[in-house]
Amino acid sequence: MAFGGGRALLRAYRGAQAGGYAFMANNVAEPNVLIGLLEGYVARRSDLVVQVSPGAAKFAGRGDKRVGLRVLSAMIRELAAGVPIGVFLNLDHFTVDEMPLIAEAIKERLVSSVMIDASKEAFDENLRISREVVALAEGGDVLVEAELGRIKGVEDEIASAEAFYTDPGEAVEFVRATGADLLAVSIGTQHGVSKGKDVVLRTEIASDIRDRLAAAGMPAPLVLHGTSGLLPEQIREVIACGICKLNKDTRYQYEYARAACAFYEAHRQGIVPPRGVVDDARGLFSGSDWSPDKKAFDPRVAGRAVQVRIKDVAIELLEQAGSGEEALFGGEA
Ligand code: G3H
Ligand code: ZN
């Protein structure tokens, strides 16, 4: 099926809700992580959710978020063409400041879903902004994720020093009034490098919200941000409480650096001239007998090491989430 829209993505989330599993939502900013993810998800027959934050769009667009989003969306669409799984793209932590870009992404179907993050605003303002995005998406094929509560830590351009837990009563009112398709909740996780052993999870908040939404006839899939530091048993616990999208960014960033670091440490002698050799990168060492080794310095070789590492991590994480062997979109759309 390859790149899918919001309706297909909602089917995938409904499948997860019914089957008691979840999807990792994996942040990407460049091709190596994306290719590793695709390989891992194809190998384990899971549909794949990737996401792009405003910071990632800015990075990929040489400072221009609009350009970067278009580049990343096209890259994801092209790389996904022909793969035997569904591939979905979510805008992650987009704010009211990016409203024109959100509108463009919806109108041109650059994405499958959009997260509007107005969680730093007071309830009424959060509701108003989130509803505005839902109105933009109305009648189209793009889902909207809104957030209620606040996650501690730093995620790209979003930072919060404090966590505010989501109020279950407000959650029902919020989903009803905004019409959001997915609800991101705050139950104690943190963005960035956090330690599961120190995280105090209030999973009862998630199960309460899930039950209240179901009773109100609005079974919005629940989203949890800041899951990189959670222990496997905590992942199982939150899924059992109704979380069906778990956002991961920091873990891939770390694994990328670790794989690159190991590669360059092991191949240093093919890149850096030994003592006594004139350091003449400009002339590619043509005045000396020593030569650098293309197998060490070609960025594609280190890039491939990163891709393979990300593939392994993607498999580990999707198996934690339970989405392996569950691909709904293996065949033609
Ligand atoms: O939106 C992205 C995620 O919430 C990132 O969380 O820093 O734990 O990977 P993380
Ligand atoms: Zn997040």
Layout: helices, strands, pairs:
Layout: E1 2-3, H1 6-19, E2 23-27, H2 31-43, E3 48-52, H3 54-60, H4 65-80, E4 86-94, H5 99-107, E5 113-116, H6 123-137, E6 143-148, E7 153-155, E8 158-160, H7 168-178, E9 182-185, H8 203-215, E10 222-224, H9 232-240, E11 243-248, H10 250-266, H11 294-297, H12 299-321
Parallel strand pairs: 1-4, 2-3, 2-11, 3-4, 4-5, 5-6, 6-9, 9-10, 10-11
Antiparallel strand pairs: 7-8
Zinc ion (ZN) is lined by residues 93, 155, 191, 225-226, 247.
Mean pLDDT: 96
Q: Stretches where pLDDT falls below 50 for ≥5 residues? A: none
Query: What strand line-up does the widest sheet have?
Result: 2-3-4-5-6-9-10-11
Shape: elongated
What's the SSE pattern? EHEHEHHEHEHEEEHEHEHEHHH
Supply Rg.
Answer: 21 Å
> N-to-C terminal Cα separation, in Å?
5 Å
| Attached small molecules | glyceraldehyde-3-phosphate, zinc ion
Helix content: 40-55%
Percent of residues in beta strands? Answer: 15-25%
Number of helices: 12
Describe the 3D structure.
The chain has 333 residues and is of the alpha/beta class. Helices cover 45% and strands 15% of the residues. It contains 12 helices and 11 strands. The strands form 2 sheets. It has an 8-stranded parallel β-barrel, surrounded by 11 helices. Helix 8 (203-215) links the parallel strand 9 (182-185) and strand 10. Helix 2 crosses helix 12 (299-321) and helix 3 (54-60) packs across helix 4 (65-80). The radius of gyration is 21 Å and the shape is elongated. Glyceraldehyde-3-phosphate binds at residues 27, 92-93, 155, 191-192, 225-228, 247-251.
